[in-house]
Amino acid sequence: MIPIPTYLEPVLKWLVDMLAFFAIYLVVVVALNLQYGYTGVPNFGLALSVAGGAYATGALTGRIAMALYGVGQGLDFMHDNSQITALLNERLRNDPVGGILILLVVIVIAMVVAGGLGFVASYPAIRLRAEYLMMVLIAMAEAILIIGVNYYPLVGGTFWVHVPDLFAWMGGLRWTGVTLVILASSILVFLAGQAIVTSPFGRLLRAVRENETTAECIGKDVVGTKIRIMVVGSMIAALAGVFYALHTQVVLAAAYTRTDWTFWPWLMLMVGGRGNNIGSLVGAGAVISARRLIIYFKHDIQPFVPIQVVWLEQIMLGLTLILVMAFRPQGILPEKPTRMRGLNYRQMLERLAGKSAEKTER
Question: Stretch 315-337: mean pLDDT, rounded?
Fold first, then answer.
């Protein structure tokens, strides 16, 4: 291993930390962009899916590992959580295959759970106006937060539950290794989102967003399309909850609030540009960089600001959103007009008009 100079260690630590949070939030913003940017479904309940993924990770990872390794017999999973986690980490330190297997099982379960939550949350109101859907999604996100905080057997209630270190086999490289795994996974999610929006299904999403009546008139199932994209987006957002739990190695129910997991992703999308996955990436990178800088250096600037630095993030959230909506509502990278296989809209209309004339003559 190449030795790292002491003066570079804080910088590298900050970079690794920023990359981890960037990767996690990129997944959430890609999910939101699919739902709102491309389909026009205003999901103000993103925290529901993220919390669902995190709660599934906290509740199941340790229990699955206990069943796999046969440890913790006679111990209560919640009351003896620290002891059980220490025993599991000893096993995982020498078993990379077991750690990866548990990770894949937890990811699948978390995505299924979040997909179900997305379906249940959207189905009753998806046929109604956007305002009603927004209220239902916000209420569902608050409901799962209340359940997590008050139902102790799930993830420890007002305390927390430890997540076994599925990457303990990485040894001293664990911190950097997990960040790289999360970053690689978020890149795959980004590419999958890009594949969706450039496919025929992506064109259907835009059609639903632009004019639902027209889409229905040509035989498209608008309600079914919205439900499907809510389920897909919820499953993607659940990955962020899984990654965050693995990164921090604990699940605290009270951490999955509207501010952190709904409003911040919305700001990232608005800053970068909705209806544009590259814009999502840019917005996530810009906002996360600013947030991590504030977190690291806010106490150093306390003598120079007239407010308590603990409120800087919230002030930045509101102020930035106001400025974006006032001066740059389309974001840094606006959505580009869609072209169909090299044809612009005029050429497309001319071709359709020509075909119509041919049918009339026949």
Answer: 85
